[in-house]
Amino acid sequence: FRRASFRAAARAMAASSADAPAFTLAYFDVLALGLPTGMVAAHSGLPWRGKDPETFDWPKVKLEEAPFNQLPLLFRPGKRTVAHSAAIARAIAAMAHASGARPGYDGSNDEDDAVVSDTLVAEALDVYAALQKGQPTCFVKMGDGGKTEQAHEELWSDTGKMSLRRHFVCLEKLVRDTSPSAGWFSSARTAGEFFLWGVLRQVVLLDAAALDATPKLKAFYETVSALPETRPLIEGTSPMGAMKQYFVAGPRQTT
Prior knowledge:
Layout: H1 2-19, E1 23-26, H2 34-42, E2 48-50, H3 58-64, E3 73-75, E4 82-83, H4 85-99, H5 111-134, H6 149-155, H7 164-174, H8 191-206, H9 215-225, H10 231-235, H11 251-254
Parallel strand pairs: 1-2
Antiparallel strand pairs: 1-3, 3-4
Helix pairs in contact: 2-4, 2-8, 5-6, 5-8
């Protein structure tokens, strides 16, 4: 009986260890950079959790644990806290690959894959930066924070440095495959692809036809949207919880 009890306890401890989160990802309750990093986490194959809304004390975390006084933050058991969304994406991808949960998630199966993954994160952040300059948010309306109607117009035009369509045309050229089982931009699915989707999603929420002129990019977006790991992020039932829309309609979307 004692031996059987010991075996049962050992199995329970092993199960508990297997289910323990590999990391905690903390962000505000808005999409913004929470959705791209949440997508990387959700598709990593690793057990993870978000912040506990009942106990998460942002002023205290900001003072004691946030290297740059901002979110998102990635907390890893026994390791240094990771700040900045690009670094968080890379750290999660490395953990997923090293654990065997998602081999090649960091692009290490192929040198070109790693480069493409990092490129997609950088490009997604360029799109995000353009949105920050030209699109109102749930916190900053048009006319405030340097958000001019001229910048908004350029954001949604076909030309100009801030043009979203210019970004999408460039991304269209990089899409290699749009089938559900493929690596879309490289030979394996990487963190960069899911990070990119997290930014594209926020553009599509503003304009459902935003990707119509780039059919391969749109097919990639729709394929990732339908994946079972993606649905909880969309529905607000992932460890990130419900996240409200950060970028909101501007003059181009309300006319």
